[in-house]
Amino acid sequence: MKRDQGDKTPARRFISAQQVAQKAGVSRSAVSRAFTPGASIAPETREKVMQAAAELGYQVNDLARGLLANRSRLVGLIVTRPEVGFRAHLVSALTRALILRGSVPLIINTGSLEQELQAAQNALFGYRAAATIILSGSPPASFVELARRNGQPLIMIGRSEPDCDHVRIDNTGAARTAARLFVERGFTRLAVAGVASATPSLVEREEAFADEAQRLGASVVRAHGQEANYAGGQKAADALLGGDATAERPQAVFCVNDLVAIGLMDRARSRFGLDLPRELAMVGFDDIPEASWDAYRLSTFRQDPEKMAEGAVAHLERRLTDLDAPPSTLRLEATFVERSTTPGR
C-alpha cells in the first residue's frame, strides 16, 4: 500500500541491538554476548542489557543470526491438507514439540497441483531449514529426493523411504486385531471402508484387515470413497448398504480412519435406518476427539499425536548431533479404545 505523502507517521521499525546497547550504556558486542548461551559476560552487564531489552521490547533476530552462523533453527513440516482429521492434531503436536525444543516450525502445505508443489519446494529450500519432517502421503518421491540433494536430514511419519529416520504406527497389527475382534464376536460378513486416494498407511490397514479376516474364514467386501474424509465415508456406506447390497449387508465394518467411519455411521443411520451396533458394528482408526462425542461413541484404534511428535523430535536431536548416524525407526502401537459401536462379548 502506497503511503500518502502527507502522512508523517514514521514507518514501524524493529528495535535494534544498537538501541539496546545505547539504553544500557554498553557496547553492541555486549548485547550480542548477553543473548548468546555460554558467552563470556559479566553478570551485572548482562542484567543491564536484559533490563534495557525488556523496556524496549527487543527480540533477537534469530533468522539473521542463523544466516551469519550458517545455522538454521527452522524445521520444515511438509503436509498436504494439514487441517483435516487426525493430521490436524499431529501437526499441532509437532509444532508444540518443535517450539519447546527451540526450533521454528515452517509448515509447508504442498497442495495437490503441480504449481502448488513447486511453490512448496521453493519455500522450503529457499529458507534452508535445518531438517524436514514429512507426513504420510505427501509429498511425492521427487520432493524427497530434492531434499536429500540439498543435504537436509529427513524424518518420515507414517511413510517409508530409504535412508531416512521413521516414526511408524503398527497399522498392520491394529487392523488384524480389528478382524479378530469381529470374528470372535460372531460376525462372518465383514467389510472394509477404504479410500481411492489412499496414503501408504491407509493401504496397510485395508490390506491387513482383509487378509486377516479371510484367513479366519470370514467373507470381506471392500468399498472406497474418493477421499479419506466424511464424504468418503458416506460414499462407502452407499456402496456397502444400498442397492443390491441390501440382502447381504455386512455385519461389521472396519474403517481406515475415523472421518470415514463417522461419515459411514451417519449415512447408515439416516438413509438406511440401521441400529448400531445391533445391525452394524463398526471400528475406526485414529481416535480423533469427535470419535468420543455422544453422537458417535466410536470404537477405534488410537494414534497418540504427542508420542509421535516426541519421537520425531528425538530423531531430530539425534540426527543433528550426528549426521552420519544410521537410519532409525520408532514403532508405536495403536491401542484399541472400545466404545459403543462394537457389541459386548
From TrEMBL:
Gene3D superfamilies: 3.40.50.2300, lambda repressor-like DNA-binding domains. It holds the Pfam family Peripla_BP_3. Residues 15-69 form the HTH lacI-type domain. One of its GO terms (molecular function) is transcription cis-regulatory region binding. InterPro entries: HTH_LacI, LacI/GalR-like_sensor, Lambda_DNA-bd_dom_sf, Peripla_BP_I. It comes from the Bacteria. Coiled coil: none annotated. SMART domains: HTH_LACI (SM00354). Keywords: DNA-binding, Transcription, Transcription regulation. This is Transcriptional regulator, LacI family.
